[in-house]
Design goal:
Blueprint: H1 18-26, H2 30-41, H3 45-59, E1 66-72, H4 78-91, E2 96-101, H5 112-123, E3 128-133, H6 144-155, E4 160-166, H7 169-176, E5 181-186, H8 198-204, E6 207-210, H9 218-234, E7 245-248, H10 257-272, H11 276-303, H12 305-319, H13 325-337
Parallel strand pairs: 1-4, 1-5, 2-3, 2-4, 5-6, 6-7
Helix pairs in contact: 1-2, 1-3, 2-3, 2-6, 4-5, 4-10, 12-13
The structure holds guanosine-5'-triphosphate and magnesium ion.
Residues 72, 74-80, 101, 106, 108, 110-111, 114-115, 166, 211-212, 214, 250-252 line the site of guanosine-5'-triphosphate.
Length: 340
Amino acid sequence: MSIILPQGSLKPYHDPDVDTVVSGIISGDRHMLSRAITLIESQKPEHERKAHEILDRCLAKKTASIRIGITGAPGAGKSTFIESLGELIISKGLTLAVLAIDPSSRQSKGSILGDKARMEKLASRKEAYIRPTASSGYLGGTSPKTHEVIVLCEAAGYDVIMVETVGVGQSEVLVDTMVDFILLLMLPGSGDELQGIKRGIMEIADAVAITKTDGDQSGIAAISKAEFEAALRMMPVKHPQWQREVILTSALTGKGIAEVWQNISDFFTAMRKGDTLETRRHEQLKSLLYTVLEEMLKKEFFSHPDVKASREIVEQQVLSAEISPFSGAKKLIEAFIRPL
Ligand SMILES: Nc1nc2c(ncn2[C@@H]2O[C@H](COP(=O)(O)OP(=O)(O)OP(=O)(O)O)[C@@H](O)[C@H]2O)c(=O)[nH]1
Ligand SMILES: [Mg+2]
């Protein structure tokens, strides 16, 4: 039976094949890039298979892109800052892909509507591609799949890739395995947070930008700058050839944005000397390989029918002190590798 479609209606939906998607991405077709990213983010096995075929083909395309992570607490001004820095990057004749935190999936201090309007300005530029990242099950907007999305954006020819992420636990470590340069955004007067969780993120930052230093914030901003500079001096050295700086900025007035871009450019000049960038990317790939492997093993393990069948019994045995947690874990591993 044939389907008769009324005039002007949509044609039946056909998934483009791998060749079409790959050549589309490489020729800069945003629609194909978006479709490939959707496949990457899908949990369906058939989508994953296709996504990896596309990805493996895109890996072959070597690019000289630069990868920047923009991290900071919710409401620190990341999206607004990206918009402002993004415009400067475009004015230098470069193209830009932004993997943004999906405004609908976060707990935010920033207004969702306002956020959309800001990113829309950059999104309307043909030199920029903005994609909200789906990070289901991950905090902070970054997942191991973010790396795959970066690779696709690079195959599509973008010169600069920016990843927006909230600096919380897991995501800061992950983002450090995916980008070359991490810019930490801090609000003026947030120096006291240095005692707490922010230390981890400070260690991986390659520069700190203090945001929103406009209006009546300039006095407090100068104090914060000194505090952060002192804190950075106490941190272990990340790259021996790089001195981390603290820059006062305002996305509203444009203050410090050019200085940040200069700092990033200087970083890449320093890192490109003697293959440091290449060596680091190799280390990052190795680290990602094992992160992904661990995840796959965990997933395989807990979905294994024999593990599922023995879990409850083993748990009970551990709770009733019949066996130790160590022996319990060993029993489950045996069920996994030697199914009865
Ligand atoms: N005065 C001033 N306000 C700013 C500046 N940059 C951002 N804001 C405001 O700060 C709020 C949060 O900004 P966002 O850019 O959404 O912050 P964010 O870090 O992306 O927020 P999340 O994505 O929710 O983590 C918004 O209301 C902005 O208008 C700035 O340079 N100066
Ligand atoms: Mg944001």
